């Protein structure tokens, strides 16, 4: 029951999942740029049989280091348009369609099961991006002319952050299924997706404290080198509220520029917080919808580190 398969990007993540679930969890090594030791250890010690690549060099590396058996699958990461996503990933990863065709054919020629994958971009605002990318994947499959064992539609499933006008999440999965029908994906082809952000964004809140208020600037005890890293973008907004255990706060609201605690002047959030006008030193601020890309992004820069995690049943 529950989540039993995980997308992993590094040997540390492989070991983490292995320690939690032993070999009962499926691990999909979808980082298109992997080290040889990570491939080898992942294959030999953790039983990983699914890998992703976006160039022939990475495929050769996988075939050199992984256990070559009938279960091995190598998926080609396809570059797709990401115009409707908050963050595009195709500037770093993804093969153009014609190159993807050649890589798929190369994998199959080496006697390995081949797949196709893509990522429409993080926080995708348009469900049709998925059916469009699936259509492109179908063209690659047909042109390659070889059986495809898996289609991974990646992530990008969004969270309902303030200011984002989103259809219901069901519209995204409906577009995935429509895309699957449109390209006549055979039942034997496994369909994967990675709905990370949409699953966990609403499951976490960050509680920070006001260290200094300087006019309309507020310095917190956490910032972009900690759990608030994603809020460096001016497009990223989260629900916030002030918690003052000693009494009520003002009903009048003001925008405040928010700084983190480090000595780096880049430690500043991209968008202001709308807070009570009397917000002061010692107040606590709850930043909601921080379940994704918060704890996983924190550092220990300047000695500041978020280290208290509380589970709340609600």
In summary, what is this structure?
The chain is α/β, with parallel strands linked by helices and 314 residues long. It contains 7 helices and 15 strands. The chain is 26% helix and 22% strand.
The profile of the biggest β sheet is:
6 strands, mixed
Instruction: Report the portion of residues in β strands.
Output: 15-25%
Query: How many strands appear in the DSSP assignment?
Result: 15
Number of domains: 2
C-alpha termini separation: 21 Å
Instruction: Please give the oligomerization state of what you see.
Output: single chain
CATH class category of the largest domain: Alpha Beta
Q: Given the C-alpha coordinates, what overall shape results?
A: elongated
Mean pLDDT: 94
Give me the number of helical elements: 7
CATH arch. level architecture of the largest domain:
Alpha-Beta Barrel
CATH topology of the largest domain: TIM Barrel
Strand order of the largest sheet: 12-15-10-11-13-14
Helix content: 25-40%
Class derived from helix and strand content: alpha/beta
Describe this protein with a few key phrases:
five-stranded parallel sheet; alpha/beta; 7 helices; 314 residues; 26% helix; Lyase, Ornithine Decarboxylase, Chain A, domain 1; six-stranded mixed sheet; 2 domains; TIM Barrel
Describe this structure in words.
The protein contains seven helices and 15 strands. The chain has two domains: 195 residues, Alanine racemase (TIM Barrel, Alpha-Beta Barrel), CATH 3.20.20; 96 residues, Lyase, Ornithine Decarboxylase, Chain A, domain 1 (Beta Barrel), CATH 2.40.37.10. The protein has 314 residues and is an alpha/beta fold. α1 packs parallel to α2. The mean pLDDT is 94.
